[in-house]
Amino acid sequence: MAANTGKLAGKTVFITGASRGIGKAIALKVAKDGANVVIAAKTAEAHPKLPGTIYTAAEEVNKAGGNAFPCIVDIRNEEQVQDAVRQAVSKFGGIDILINNASAISLTGTLSTPMKKYDLMNSINARGTYLCSQACLPHLLKGKNPHILNISPPLNMSAKWFSGHVGYTMAKYGMSMCVLGMSEEFRSDGVAVNALWPRTAIWTAAMEMIGGGGEIKEQCRTVDIVSDAAYIILSRNSSETTGNFYIDDEVLKSEGITDMEQYSCVPGHRLLPDFFLDVGPEELKIQIRETGGSQTSPNGNGNTSGVGRTFQAIQQQLSDKLVKEISASYQFELSGKKTALHLFCFCYRLVLVQYKLSCKETCQCVVR
Fold first, then answer.
1. How deeply is 303 buried, as exposed, middle or buried, from its count of CB atoms within 10 A (0-12, 13-18, 19+)?
2. Active site members
3. Which family does it belong to (predicted)?
4. What is the pLDDT of residues 183-211, one digit of tens each?
5. Does the residue 37 lie in any domain?
6. In a 3-state reduction of DSSP, which class is residue 70?
7. Is the pTM of this model over 0.90?
8. Which of 202, 249, 298, 325 is spaced 20 to 30 Å from 259 by Cα?
9. Domain assignment of residue 101, given as a range
10. CA 106, CA 333: separation in Å to the nearest integer?
11. Would you list the DSSP string of 329-345?
């Protein structure tokens, strides 16, 4: 875990969607420093399926050492946002940090996304982030070491991250575009504007509610990895740390924290990658190693195993960008029936053809 240093003591942190999940985890982390925490969320009464309200979160923040101020805020409502900011400034004397965490998600295709749902996602994700930033910036400009941190992904323009959920991607990227633009706009003023995104799926009550069972939880990390990464970013010099699209575990590694198993819901279990992140060469090697096996033929029930699963892993993760980054030769040492080995080479060539590569140039198959 990232140790608290006390750097955020007395700072006022305005967090949207802080009644539960990642937002609440960040609230509790900064509270340990003795920060003032504005819990800005809609949940005044408990949801039948989702635990936590702004008031229960406030109790936890106070117990953790912070000074909580719960505010009923629908970030789609300009008047409510402005009023919450005014109340926070009146109570604490200013705002030093804004966390744009509130978000809406619907992983539905274009024909399955009613405009009401599209408007909801864009009103909360893109417009809500812009509105909260606009409302807090006059006070951030007066603050010492001011930060805006959006829980949003890098702007990955690969079509696969739009296909199947165009509306959600547009809305989420709207948050990231705020980082891209505002970081440059307020760079000379010393206001840091950054994004933070988890490398893997994060287990929350919301994920459980929408259908994530035990098998999904096993492949997730806890909210603590995001809150620890956020704390590290917020502790940095704002004039030297802006315009970045951070990934949670990379932030931790930059501070010498290399044990990521402590954040796994089930240590040692394979993790589910989050949206918008292409798997890099090292992660691909790990997936291939974990997927491969000794069998070299279909297992009889229509599912491939061993070599087949290995190539499923390769094909799922290959992209034009990754091929260029790797730019390497591979040597496969195989044993078994020659028919299976020939099938292996044939499947590999099919993958290579998809990316316009030459098997002769990239693959050396050693048959034993």
1. exposed
2. 168
3. Belongs to the short-chain dehydrogenases/reductases (SDR) family.
4. 999 999 999 999 999 999 999 987 887 66
5. yes
6. strand
7. no
8. 325
9. 12-286
10. 45
11. -EEEEE-S-HHHHHHHH
